[in-house]
């Protein structure tokens, strides 16, 4: 069950919004979406590898529906493991990689050594795999990779820029996992957490060709003024860390399938709204940009619904998915969804007919223990009663502290899936 950390509010609107979040995550549950996509021929040995926040739950779904011999290893985020009998489950750090992730990536590559054409490999990939598959490329240290990842996270870089860098600092991303499995056949089942469900972006595309180049990676690092060693700069300039490109013969026996996506989650939330007698309007699954800017735009649309009945007449719920970014300047705590909600509360200024939720469908908003937060007409009033200044909290990037104090954090715990962030705005 979803809950708000310390809230004693009786708020039916929050209950409704939480039901949409629950429906969205349930639609992407590995137990539901993995079995229909397993090969029809389920006999013979299968080697399972994978990474991501959903990978352990995906592995268990495979075990429950595969009668033949199984072996393998997947790595998931700390706290996201589930027990499996035949597939080894390891945990590692996210979003900044650690030594456990490096060891797990090395062990996965080891299991793919010396395969033959008759061998079959199943890759289970989901969001978060980029950090969890921490196999630094030749001449790249884990320490430098950690520093670069942290700097990118703080810079406000979007997922495409981050992945262009991460692929070229890695020995396993950007198609290199598929190249390691060749000449065996490889089937990738992926739960998408990115706008457009681009296979090259999900977990930095470890099983598909990479169209980005070392030059692209270097351009991103320079654009965000991220310091790198002279040796790494030389390797990128010389193309020594290049990745397999589309059309590489080592990828010829690789198949990729999306089995769950942000769009699927939005459709499930919309169906739940319809059942409750509320009109859903899906704004899209590619909402990106600075969280506080996204908040102002979404608040404007919600006000238009409340004041003019357009683009939807109340009662309605505006649904969207995507991944906002946060440029960190303060010392506070909080992820992109919590910051988006804080900025929206400020933009709405207690508008009496609007309630909203923003949450990461994996259950963790950045590095805290909440999935996101909820707001309503009472948000700023509740904060003021406690002596809290919403604008000061936003300036300090302290959305977590703000919502924790008023009891409106959205806390679900790990959902064991990941189909990006969900935004739901109810207009009564």
TrEMBL record:
Keyword Transmembrane tagged: yes
Supply the name of the protein.
Putative hydroxypyruvate reductase
Q: Which GO terms describe its molecular function?
A: glycerate kinase activity; hydroxypyruvate reductase [NAD(P)H] activity
**Source species of the chain:** Candidatus Accumulibacter appositus
Which Pfam families does the record associate with it? DUF4147, MOFRL
Q: Which InterPro entries match?
A: GK-like_C_sf (IPR037035), GK_N_sf (IPR038614), MOFRL (IPR007835), MOFRL_assoc_dom (IPR025286), MOFRL_protein (IPR039760)
Is GTP-binding a UniProt keyword of this protein? no
Membrane-crossing residue ranges in chain numbering: 121-142
Main EC class the enzyme belongs to:
oxidoreductase
The chain positions of domain MOFRL-associated read 17-236
User: Any idea of its EC number?
Assistant: 1.1.1.81
User: What keywords were assigned to this record?
Assistant: Membrane, Oxidoreductase, Pyruvate, Transmembrane, Transmembrane helix
Q: Where is the MOFRL domain?
A: 316-421
Instruction: Return the GO cellular component terms, semicolon-separated.
Output: cytoplasm
Task: State the encoding gene.
Answer: ttuD
Q: Which lineage ranks, top first, belong to the organism behind this chain?
A: Bacteria, Pseudomonadati, Pseudomonadota, Betaproteobacteria, Candidatus Accumulibacter
């Amino acid at each position: 069950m979803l809950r708000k950390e310390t809230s004693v509010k009786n708020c039916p609107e929050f209950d409704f919004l939480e039901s949409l979040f629950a429906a969205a995550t349930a639609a992407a549950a590995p137990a539901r979406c993995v079995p229909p996509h397993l090969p029809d021929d389920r006999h013979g040995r299968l080697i399972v590898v994978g990474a991501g926040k959903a990978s352990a739950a995906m592995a268990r779904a495979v075990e429950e529906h595969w009668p033949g011999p199984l072996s393998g290893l997947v790595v998931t985020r700390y706290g996201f493991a589930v027990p499996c009998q035949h597939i080894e489950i390891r945990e590692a750090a996210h979003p900044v990689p650690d030594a456990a992730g490096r060891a797990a990536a090395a062990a996965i590559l080891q299991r793919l050594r010396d395969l033959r054409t008759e061998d079959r490999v199943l890759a289970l990939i989901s969001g978060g795999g980029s950090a969890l598959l921490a196999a630094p490329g030749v001449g790249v240290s884990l320490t430098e990779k950690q520093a670069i990842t942290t700097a990118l996270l703080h810079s406000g870089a979007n997922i495409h820029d981050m992945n262009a860098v991460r692929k070229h600092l890695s020995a396993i991303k950007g198609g290199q996992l598929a190249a390691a499995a060749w000449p065996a056949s490889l089937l990738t089942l992926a739960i998408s957490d990115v706008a457009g469900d681009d296979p090259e972006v999900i977990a930095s595309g470890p099983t598909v060709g990479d169209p980005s180049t070392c030059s692209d990676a270097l351009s991103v690092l320079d654009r965000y003024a991220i310091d790198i060693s002279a040796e790494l700069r030389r390797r990128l300039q010389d193309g020594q860390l290049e990745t397999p490109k589309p059309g590489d013969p080592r990828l010829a026996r690789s198949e990729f399938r999306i089995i769950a996506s942000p769009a699927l989650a939005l459709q499930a939330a919309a169906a739940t709204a319809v059942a409750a007698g509320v009109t859903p309007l899906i704004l899209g699954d590619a909402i990106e940009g600075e969280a506080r800017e996204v908040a102002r735009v979404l608040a404007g649309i919600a006000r238009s619904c409340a004041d003019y009945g357009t683009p939807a007449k109340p009662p309605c719920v505006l649904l969207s998915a995507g991944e906002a970014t946060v440029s960190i300047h303060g010392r506070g705590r909080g992820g992109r969804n919590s910051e988006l909600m804080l900025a929206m509360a400020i933009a709405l200024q207690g508008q009496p007919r609007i309630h909203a939720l923003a949450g990461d469908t994996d259950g963790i908003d950045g590095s805290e223990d909440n999935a996101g937060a909820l707001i309503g007409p009472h948000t700023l009033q509740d904060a003021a009663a406690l002596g809290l200044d919403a604008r000061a909290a936003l300036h300090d990037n302290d959305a977590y502290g703000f919502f924790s104090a008023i009891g409106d954090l959205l806390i679900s715990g790990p959902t064991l899936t990941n189909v990006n962030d969900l935004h739901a705005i109810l207009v009564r």
